[in-house]
Amino acid sequence: MSLSGKVAAVTGGGSGIGEATCVRLAEEGARVAAIDIDESAAELTAKLAGDGLAVVADVSDSAAVDAALEKVEAELGPVDVWVNNAGISGGAHSERVNPRAEQQLAELAEGEVTTALEALVRMTDEEWATMLAVHLNGTFYGTRAAARSMAAKGGGVIVNVASICGIEGCTGHPHYSAAKGGILAFTRSVAKELIQQGVRVNAIAPGFVDTQLVSGSLTEPLIGAVKMGTPQGRLGRPQEIAATISFLCSEEASFFVGETVSPNGGFVTV
């Protein structure tokens, strides 16, 4: 097992990609901490991951992230792997945009799109700030906390979960795209710095994956359009993304520094 004896922490570990990653890292031999804002979800994942640890934290709160790391290290030992995965869906923003997006699909079938999406102009300050606080700020807080610990002991691995929306920009979701694009640039910057201290940082930019985050952001007709636009003809599976994250956490990926790996079924090429 490639991660035997390692301590791994995964934010957003209570569901979706995070849950699958916790289970996969545990299968690879790591002792795993599932960090999530939902205590019951974190506890369930911890059970699935064997002798895992459930930790409650809001990643948009830097003090909470620092406290989560302290709890992990107090109970499991110094952290070797940190995965910044926590995220949120579009909520009310998606509920406003989706009907117009469906109307655009219908119009496209007739040959001409006349409905304006109005995603940007109707977005509130709070929606913008909240999305960046969880995805981008949370990645910064987690990376900073993990780097402080890892650099002190001379090594470790950090994986930041972005999205193809950060590569190409996803229509109708400028706040999510901005946050994920920021994660990719942030990863490249800190990777060049931290590798000198033995800390390896990379990013993963998945395509559309069959998780609650996707189903909470897109309606069935829009998910159908995504599948049609994906050469492989389907959504990704959380376990497929977890396998890629597991690879980046292993010594087999020892020459990967500041890279973006994008399993996306052919939706976009990097």
Number of helices: 10
What would you report as the Rg, rounded to the nearest angstrom?
Answer: 18 Å
**Distance, first to last CA:** 30 Å
**Rough shape?**
globular
Most strands sheet: 7 strands, parallel
Would you count the extended β strands for me? 7
Strand order of the largest sheet: 3-2-1-4-5-6-7
Helices and strands: which structural class? alpha/beta
**Helix content, binned percent:** 40-55%
Strand residue percentage: 5-15%
Q: What is the string of helix and strand elements?
A: EHEHEHEHHEHHEHHHE
Mean of the pLDDT scores? Answer: 96
Ranges where pLDDT stays below 50 over 5 or more residues in a row are none
Summary tags:
seven-stranded parallel beta sheet, 50% helix, 270 residues, alpha/beta, single chain
Structure commentary:
The chain has 270 residues and is of the alpha/beta class. The protein is 50% helix and 12% strand. It has ten helices and seven strands. It has helices at 16-27, 39-48, 62-75, 92-110, 125-153, 165-168, 174-194, 212-215, 220-229, 238-249; strands spanning 7-11, 31-36, 53-56, 81-84, 156-161, 199-204, 260-261. It has a seven-stranded parallel sheet, sandwiched between helices. Helix 1 (16-27) links the parallel strand 1 and strand 2 (31-36). The two termini are 30 Å apart. The model has no long low-confidence stretch (mean pLDDT 96).
Give the secondary structure arrangement, pairings included.
Layout (H helix, E strand, L loop, with lengths): L6 E5 L4 H12 L3 E6 L2 H10 L4 E4 L5 H14 L5 E4 L7 H19 L14 H29 L2 E6 L3 H4 L5 H21 L4 E6 L7 H4 L4 H10 L8 H12 L10 E2 L9
